[in-house]
UniProtKB/TrEMBL annotation:
It holds the Pfam family TetR_N. The keyword Transcription applies. It comes from the Bacteria. GO terms for molecular function: DNA-binding transcription factor activity; transcription cis-regulatory region binding. The keyword Transcription regulation applies. The lineage of its organism: Bacteria, Bacillati, Actinomycetota, Actinomycetes, Mycobacteriales. This is TetR family transcriptional regulator. Residues 13-73 form the HTH tetR-type domain.
Amino acid sequence: MTAPTGLREREKARVRRELIDAALLLFERRGFEQTTVQEIADAAQVSRRTFHRHFPAKAAVVFSHEQDVMSSLLAALDRRPPHEAVFVALRAALREFLLDEAEAELRRRQADTARRARLVLITNPQLRQENFTTAVGRRDALARSFARRGGLDADDLRAKLAAATCFAALGVGLDDWVASPDPSLARLYEILDGTIAALQHGLEIPAVASDG
């Protein structure tokens, strides 16, 4: 039973990747609003029903990379030593996730998809609003991870605040990376690590004006 199940899962993953690639290409060429689900299915050479087995709507294609990345990042965070504070552990998890040489080719493909999807997202106000709503689940998952690491209650305010702040910072970092002329994983890590480091060490900005 293991082999057939493995084959089915690989085939499912392949179709999902092809749907994402087809959708992003159409969004880039024609625009998100002008692209239909049927056109995405046709471009991927599958039926509309197959599309909906993977995604409830075309907007879900744009958000899918963030869900995938957050799942992998949370797994890397959970593997960090339990004595590490949350920001220390998160920075190490980012490094492990983005710069793992064994997964370099996969991470480069994921980064390319993430960059393309983020460009579609940030240029469409409707998608940005939808993403704000769908991101709540990912933010709450990060808060629960922080709470476990800190030995806090699942609904602890500090864990929620830390997660919400990190989540916003990572979004700012992603947008900065998308705007950067350097699309490399190294640059992405540098930016995201810098955003969390800023939170870790405080964001106080001294005034330019003197008392005098």
